Amino acid sequence: MLFNSYIFILVFFPIVFAGYYLLLNLKNKSIAKIFFVLANLYFYSYWNVHYLPIMLASIAINFTLATILNKINRLRLKRTVLTIGILFNIALLGYYKYYDFFMTNVNTVFGTNIGLLNLALPLAISFFTFQQIMYLVDTFREGTKEYSLLDYAFFVTFFPHLIAGPIVHHREIINQLRDGSNYKIKSNNIASGLYIFSVGLFKKVIIADTLAGWANQGYNNIASLSMFDSWITTFAYTFQLYFDFSGYCDMAIGLALFFNINLPVNFNSPYKALDIQDFWRRWHMTLGRFFTNYLYIPLGGNRKGTARTYFNLFFIFFVSGIWHGAGWTFVIWGILHGIASVICRFWKGLNIKLPKFIAWFITFFFVHIAWVFFRSPDLTTAKVLLTKMLNLQTFQFPAGIASTFNELIGTHFYPATYYFDLKLSLVLVFILGIILFAKNSIERLNTYKPSYRLAAFISIIAVISFLYLNRVSEFLYFKF
To answer: Which terminal CB of the chain, N or C, has fewer other CB atoms within 10 Å?
Structure first.
């Protein structure tokens, strides 16, 4: 079920909202939680009910292992149980997400003919697997005896973050869930939630999905693209991904606020970053937090010398690439960000500061080029598109400019035939200006105060978005 769908907005969400708060009026709050967990499971299984047993098994096994960890005092035995739990989660993720990719490469390299399983990737498996690994590691480190199975299931299945994040730490949800003051409707949270949900819906339905049409058109017709067209295509995707993911994060925060749950910020104007480390402090922030706390630091972080620090930095981005998808394009994307992060760390050690504009330009240009691998279905497509983007020999002036030059200075410029309308470039420049100079939705939410003007604004963008819900499209991070 999509946040940007009629059935979610008009049916599922109103029923869950009303039912949850009505049941919270009972003395036994567990009934309301059970209702909510069941609603979450329905939300998850709406796409394909065959995914549901996988999630239920994952919840049951991880909670059981955590219960065992809480009862064990011997350190060696605890480490064994933790290792079993981590291997179980990695194996579950690896089997469904990477088996066919791995076997395809084995067949290519060794000339074998091992059959592929053609497994459908269970929704959200990358997200709920990482969240449960965090839970097991924290149980090993500090214990989680106070958790009930019901609270744990609520945390894992909470529908606002279930499908595409943020990757939430268990205490962030469960501590708020246990706060008795959150059992009643809070009008300020409702107002804030409606505001940021509407903004996120507009980002997704109007901006991201419009950009998606241009990006898909370009990627589906690469042979027809000029140098100019190839940049239009890739910028359309760069901005599509920005507003698609930003829109989802906003909508998730807004939906959680309706239930008095504050989700962590996961997106904070990453295209304003002045270096690649700054970019990753702003893009998919909870994924970066996971890799820092549960991979980078356990590997030694920056405590074991310069060479080891560089290796650790590179390795977490290599893993990040693999986490995003089972394909060589994602591996290359992760490697590029790993190399860039090592270079950035080295450069900072020299204490040389670039002018802000140059620092921003280098960062944005690198991120944009790397997105080509992220979006391309295969390495051949990425190579062809990058060649077109960087081949100055294929550049041609627009017809109007070419004719002007020919008249003024007697040259013989040949006008280009473009796949895209040149007006699209002005639209993309305008969008970039909004990204760089306007306050983002989180900044506006932090200073949000209800007013008639904002009410009118929310109403307008909500109605516009609602009218376009018929062009249903999944969020890009659903596939990861």
So the answer is: N
